[in-house]
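Batch job 17 of 40 flagged for manual review because the log was empty.
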Amino acid sequence: MGRTSRGTFGSEARCRHYLERLRWPDRVRCPRCDAATGISRIESRGQFECEACGYQFSVRVGTALHGSRLPLRTWILAVHLMTESPNGISANQLGQVLGVSYKTAWFLCHRIRLAMKDQAGELLAAEPHGDGIAQQRMALLRRSVSDTHRRLDPKHLAAYLDEAAFRVRNRANDHRFQDTLVRLLRVDALPYAELTADR
């Protein structure tokens, strides 16, 4: 990341505040009762408390980051690496850069691909299955996936293809990093049910 990015994401508190602004651009809302007033910040715990229902929550609650103990800075850096790498990045490479285990890197990769799917899914479904152009597109995507991910599990092929399609669709999108973070913070950000238990 550049100088501005290092300043923005230099501490866990700064990362948290950045993600809070992305999730709640107007005002913080309680995930339980949807109240937008009477929300107070518990700075020492990085949480909020809702006066209406008493619920205490953080920016992670109900999102793809829910249940993860990884620092928010690790999440943000992982999203940056995955969205800005021109040819993709494997879980093994991501783990080496972030200094985390392969299992943790794999978990990050797959959660982030959930967010990429929303931007890329149409590319795979846009044309009839038998169409020659669609088949060529799919072949290119599969080749891209196999070149980057040597140990490709067929069970998760759809997720890998979503990532490859994301790259095609977002080459000219200067906001792909931020857009992907926003999608990770959506409450319905876990369409791949089998990933919810992987940690």
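Reviewer: the log was empty due to a logging misconfiguration, but the result itself is present. Residues 72-195 form one domain. Unflagging and moving on to job 18.
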